[in-house]
Amino acid sequence: MYVELHARSAFSFLEGASLPEDLIAVAANHGMPAVALLDRDGVYGAPRFHVAAQKCGIRAHIGAEISVIDLGPQAALPSWIPNKIPARPVRLPLLVKNRMGYQNLCRLITKYKLREKEKGTGSATPEEIAEHAEGLVCLTGGEEGILAAALAHEGYEKAQTNLKKLIQWFGLGNVYVEMQRHFDPMEEQRNQAAVRLAESLNLPLLATNGVRYAQSGHREIQDVFTCIRNYCQLETAGRLLERNEERHLRSPKEMRQLFADVPEAITNTIELSSRLEFTLEDLGYEFPRYPIPVGETMDSFLRKRAEEGFSERYASKGDQLYEKAARQVQRELHLIEKLKLAGYFLIVWDMVRFCKEQGILVQGRGSAANSAVCYSLGITAVDPVGMELLFERFLSEERGEWPDIDLDLPSGDQREKAIQYVYQRYGELGAAMTANVITYRGRSAAREVGKVLGFDAETLDRLSSLVGNFEFRGAEDNWQTYFEHAGFDLRHFLIRKYLELCNRIQDLPRHLGQHSGGMVVCQGQLDSVVPLEPATMPGRVVVQWDKDDCAEMGIVKVDLLGLGMMAVLEECLQLIPRHYGHSVDLAQIPADDTTVYQTLRNADTVGMFQVESRAQMASLPRNGPTKFYDLVVQVAIIRPGPIIGKMMHPYMRRRQGQEEVRYAHPSLEPILKRTLGVPLFQEQLLRMAMVAANFTGGEAEDLRRAMGFKRSEARMRDIEIKLRNGMQRNGIDPLVQEEIITQITSFARYGFPESHAASFALIAYASAYLKCHYLAAFTAALLNNQPMGFYSPATIVKDAQRHGLRVRPIDIVRSDWLCTIENGTNKEGKEVPCLRVGLRYVRGLREKAAQGILRARSQKTFDGITDLAQRVPELQKAELVNLSEVGALNSLGKSVHRRTALWQVERASRPAGPLLDAIPEESETSPLEKMTNEERLVADFHASGMTTGPHPMAYCRKNLKALKIERACDLERLADGAYTRVAGCVIARQRPGTAKGFVFLSLEDETGIANIIIHPDLYARYRLIINREKFLRVDGILQNQGTISIKAARVMPVSITAAETESHDYH
Amino acid sequence: MAFACIFVPDFPVQAVVRLEPDLRGKPVVIYQGAPPLTRVFGTNSAARDMGVESGMTKLQAEACGAIEWRWRSALQEATAQAALLDCAWTISPRIEQGPKRAEESLLDTVVLDIEGCEKLFGSYLKIANDLKRVAAEVGFETQVAIAGNPEAAICAARGFAEITVIPEGKEAQVLGKLSLSLLALPTELLETLHRWGVHTCGEFAALPEIAVIERLGQEGKQWHQLARGSEVRQLIPQDFPSQFEEGMDLDFPVDLLESLLFVVNRLLEQLCLRLRMHVLATSELKITLTLQPGDSRGKNTEALLHIRTLRLPVPAKEAKFLLKLLQLDLQAHPPGAPVTKLHIVAVPTRSRTRQLGLFLPLSPEPEALEITLARIENTVGEGRVGAPALMDSHRPGAFQQERFVLREASGEFTKAAEHSVHPVLRIFRPPLPAKVELKEKKPAAVVCEGAKKAVLAHAGPFRAKGGWWSESPWARDEWDVLIPSLRPKYESSFANTSNKKEETALYRIYLDLRSNSWFVEGIYD
Question: Over the range A307-324, which residues count as b (16 or more CB within 10 Å of their CB) and which as e?
């Protein structure tokens, strides 16, 4: 028997080529009882390794290879052998013996990682190793180890001295002299020395294979990674590459044969494995305790806070609801007490309280909205009792895991404030962000493998532009097609290899990033639970595990997510009192505003949260929302779950009265009544399992997890059997059973939680309300928080203009950095708010320069362009040029047009020196012609990405009319089935994964947006035109059945303008 | 003042077509880059009409229809450039090749100072016609223009088809119609002008000069003058110290090497004399031989050039030495046809100065060594002389050939001594095919050169596998084996001594894992 005790995974980031799961699978195949993972400078892959090992019944030993300075560089080749191997500090392979050892390892790694200046360069000092040696077993390593280094650089004596040092640090029984055999003569020389050294110091020998990949074929991936790491190509990498493919996980039989001359090296692996008691189950994580006043317990304190909030929230509601809610709160508090989760709720409550105190808009999302306690504590804004939401989706006794609370915050500085609060509150080593493991995806794989194979940058650009554009993965969306479209000859050996490698490195880890908002906190020292390292963003610390791994290891996390729309709402609420004369409280806005629902029914939703996409617009008129719950359904229905589960169309048909409402079984009626008998939410599926098959809340939640992304066939089969048995017991007909099971299994994977939909629907409603009633403020806030949402600023501006908002262009005399609201009058002479586009929309204008303009302007108005350039020295020439180009300087003088400004800016930005600067120009006017309409359009889009003037299509309407091309606003007057022509600027291209290859285009003209549906065959024929052209003409059949769209029969480019319009494509 | 300019449109294509007249009129595409990274580098108008664009891959270009294609040849382009210069030299001695522009050199353009030439060759129109005709004789379709200054001539040649002669003082009027892009302005300036709504030379020229200077500086002034056709500048024929040239048109074609060398010697003596006057030597010698057209019936009239370049490891200034090197080179690479014209370019460099150490061993004179190497190369073939150098690769025996250079003696011995502690493997080239009998997957006996030798001791296997990304991967297992010697040293004298202990030796054998064949690779000293 043999245990591999020195294996790296791909979580050594480019220094290993197989996933931890693959290593475990191969080890299981070889019948190994245990295997150890020693990733480079971290335990990045440990959770996945541990979970995979648990499933296979193998023991997962944990450890890491630690880089150490002051022990000399790694062994190098003799100087006469040409090589490019860089000098790196030696690595010390350490194995964890017990929990103390694990804590020491985590602290040790954290210590030197937090010190590192560049990612992946940190190393421990010998003193730190000595300090953290308890509970760890040290191996001498292979070619990167301390023994090889000493033998190569300073000889046998030095090697002996180093070994003595290790004995001194780790103790005599905890140092093993490692032997590896990869059929390399130099390695064999080292082995001979190692045997002598072990004998001389009475140390045990240990055979390992220094594993870098699970199977020998993975060596190719390792070679590719080596090249990526060293910025070189396979052809020129030389001795950096593997000498052969022997660093795979060898079978015990092979290892025994290989070490037949030193059998004790093999038997020692078993002996050592048996000494390594630690596994990740023994992590020792503890959630922080919330500081409470004397005389209180955390439970009593939480109960008080919940009761306070409860009376505030439910006092105004009816008695029946009040009582029901009171019962629910008591039930939840009881469970929270039982599960000892009060601290967790208090900590989240504390974060929310901080945000509210600071005026930061905050709202809990996700399953937390199912909890009446969360609602009472002000964490969430949806009443779960009133909406009859399922608490078990949030928390259940059986699951034995932490609940998941996600908080939505305004993106940007406000969210940063909240994050910094958590850091301050729990200390540098008590809180950290979760990591985000960046893996190789289509584009990155194509680019990096291409580089390694020696392809030039231009070729790689072309290929990467073709890869990964589409959400939909049709028959043609594969590597082969991408390569063919990029003009590659697939018959060529190198191209075939390229293709193969791109496929093989998919999903392998590339580097560690920072999760956008996931934070973990810990009672005491988080660095003894998982190593921490600095994030790229200064002042941030991340743990070495991603959020799934943290959840798997039972570490509680709170997601502080930045939501652009929250920032919009917040800004909007600040703008309204200043310009409309009254303030708005989001909690008090009328819930049944007819204008809002009418607008939603008309699918007039550009800029609104969650309901602005092309697919949402198409379904809104059919759903016809008239109350808040309709909006909840609307948010949830355009999701892969309902679409793949084939629930969307039945719901819509029932909604429109085209189909009878029926239930698979009468017992399901109370659950599915609100959604007309069609299951749309995860909670409904859970309840269906509970009612039809007598599942408990926890079992139902287990069902959801089993169906989740990491679904296992075996686990699903077990649950299906359980479902059938339950339904059988309830006497449900086998045919009905089948229907229910199909509904559950096909849907649970993607189903959207009702609570989450309700939270989002609240924000969607608020955004719709503000857009309908405070268009100027909403548009200004929306433009000030770009990029976000579905449409470009140009489209948002045009949409606002069509709704009657006067949008004024950027003006150096009036614009602020952000978009602002000015007073203006409408056609009837009534005073209305107008939008002034801010200086932030001038391409390339730095905020610092814009602030300079504002400062100088506040002191004295500008006399002219020369004055501007002299008084705002921060302004660079390119910025002045862009300001001129967009017309922002036109107000700096009489009859100044854009070309005059451009003419003067060139002179002003080229100082002639003190002697000549004072001499005024002979002529005030410029010899340049005024811009034509077309030139103005091009300049507007080039320098600000939008135009406040007429839509480009408006300039050629006369010609378009002659071609019988309809305007978007006229389509509703045409009959269903009519052959129609439309033309417009492409503002969105979509190919949703659920649409079977259909492509949806949105064409914008001066009157609105026309929706185009393109059949996959037509798309294949016109792929280039559809994807590249900015303006298109589409001929086809008009579909006017509630929603209006055109089924394209012909697509052709039209020449409207050379302006650089933008389209939101394939997101 | 009068200047002419000859411009060759689609130069990369024309550089090929002029040597292959059959291609004329057909869509021709020039590729560059090793497969599979081949790209379209140049096209002619017929190819562009079919939709071929520069930068396309070979597959994409071929998808456009039936096209003729050739690889890009730097040599052909260089000869084409030389030929273009030759055309210009037929009219004027003052020519400027490929004047520099903001972001590129116009290699397809040559400018001539033709002031006074009309007295020799006739009117400007006739000179332009002559230039076009001569260029056509060497296979170029050209655009020729004559103007009062070089830049106006260049703009007109690049902007107008066929022949343009601009009357004196009418430059601005004629050039006004041309697009600004023809001026090859710096990108930033071109963008500024486009922002101003200025798109033609005429529009640019119409702007007031002082205002332009205030905005675009002196550089802008130059471009402004250029657009007005009034940019006056001196031609820059050649940068004198950058290289030394000598050339001679022969009265009659020379086909004997000895006769040719007689002329070469005279040119070299002149070159060396001039080099010595500047206390310089040469590090590179380039000889260009213009050859007589091959077809005696006059059908194939394109001139061919024969160019040889000698890069010298040490600076030289002795005509005799240079002549010897050229002689050896031309013997190895004789011109394919009688020579009608010679052109030698010497790149100057500082003379070699070296103080020999009193106690250092004498090494060969670099000049003598160079001649010896050239002689060896002459015998064994080009590119087959040099020193082997180890490569950075795991591939067994991988080496590359480097130029043989005499190293400085100091310090070498200690390094060599350092290595001498390792056993030395004498490699059999090629390796000896063998058969190996295995016992428990280890070599038990080696059969080689008809003899079977039992393996007395072994070490291994040592495995190397690589090149998996290429079409020539390698994979082998090496063993070091102790066997009775394959080639005993004293075979004859002790042949009949039956009780003599058999001599043994340590060999390296290997199994090529791809062909599954065994070889004896070498013997350890």
Answer: eebbeebbeeeeeeebeb
A381 versus B22: the higher-pLDDT residue is A381
For residue B390, list chain A residues with Cβ-Cβ distance below 8 A: 80-82
> For a pLDDT cut of 90, what percent of chain B falls above it?
21
In single-letter form, the type of residue at position A268 comes to N
Interface of A with B in 228-247 (CB under 8 A): 234-236, 238-239, 241-246
Residue matched to tokens 């509601």: A317
Locate the DSSP E strands across B177-322.
Answer: 244-254, 280-291, 304-316
A910 lies within 8 A of chain B by CB: yes
Q: Which residues neighbour B135 within 8 Å (Cβ) at sequence distance 6 or greater?
A: B6, B8, B84, B87, B141, B142, B144
Cα(A726)–Cα(A695) distance, integer angstroms: 8
Report the mean per-residue pLDDT for chain A.
Answer: 88
Single-letter residue type at A860: K
* A751 in Cβ contact with A641 (< 8 Å): yes
DSSP state of A331: H
**Chain B residues close to A245, C-beta within 8 Å:** 465
Q: Report which residue type is found at A258.
A: L
Max CA pair span of chain B: 111
Cα angle B23, B28, B34; round to 5:
120
Q: Count helices and strands (H / E) in chain A.
A: 44, 23
pLDDT above 70: percentage of residues in chain B: 82
- pLDDT at B415 (0 to 100): 46
Q: Beta-strand (E) ranges in A636-720?
A: none
State how far the Cα of A96 lies from the Cα of A116, in Å rounded to an integer: 24
Q: How far A243 CA sits from the closest chain B CA (Å)?
A: 5
- The owner of tokens 């007909």 is A733
Q: Is A934's Cβ below 8 Å from some Cβ in B? A: no
Q: ∠ CA A585-A590-A591 to the nearest 5 degrees?
A: 115
pLDDT digits (tens, 9 = 90+) for A742-761: 777 766 666 678 888 888 89
Query: How confident is the model at residue A260, as a pLDDT?
Result: 92
What is the distance between the alpha carbons of residues A845 and A336, in angstroms, rounded to a whole number?
A: 53
Average of per-residue pLDDT values in chain B = 81
Probe site for chain A from B199, B392, B412 (most A CB atoms < 10 A): B392
Q: Provide DSSP, A215-279.
A: SGGGHHHHHHHHHHHHT--HHHHGGGS-SSS--S---HHHHHHHTTT-HHHHHHHHHHHHH----
Single pTM value for the model: 0.72
Helices A46-56 and A20-29 pack at an angle, to 10 degrees, of 30
Name the band, by pLDDT with cuts 50, 70 and 90, for residue A776. Answer: very high
Which residue has better confidence, B49 or A703? B49
Is residue B495 pLDDT above 70, yes or no? no
CA distance B405 to chain A (A): 18
Residue B493 has pLDDT above 60, yes or no: no
> What residue type is assigned to position B39 of the chain?
R
The predicted-structure confidence for B316-342, as pLDDT tens digits, reads as follows 888 888 998 888 888 888 888 888 887
**Which of A227, A495, A884, A906 to probe the B interface (max B CBs under 10 A)?**
A906
Cα–Cα distance, B492 to A197 (Å, whole number) = 49
The reply to whether residue A80 touches residue B390, judged by beta carbons under 8 angstroms, is yes
Strand partners, A138: A94, A175
Q: What is the mean pLDDT of residues B270-287?
A: 75
Q: How close, in Å, is residue B429 to chain A by CA atoms?
A: 21
Q: A629-642 as b/e, with b when 16 or more CB fall inside 10 Å?
A: bbbbbbbbbbbebb
Q: Please give the DSSP secondary-structure letter assigned to residue B23.
A: G
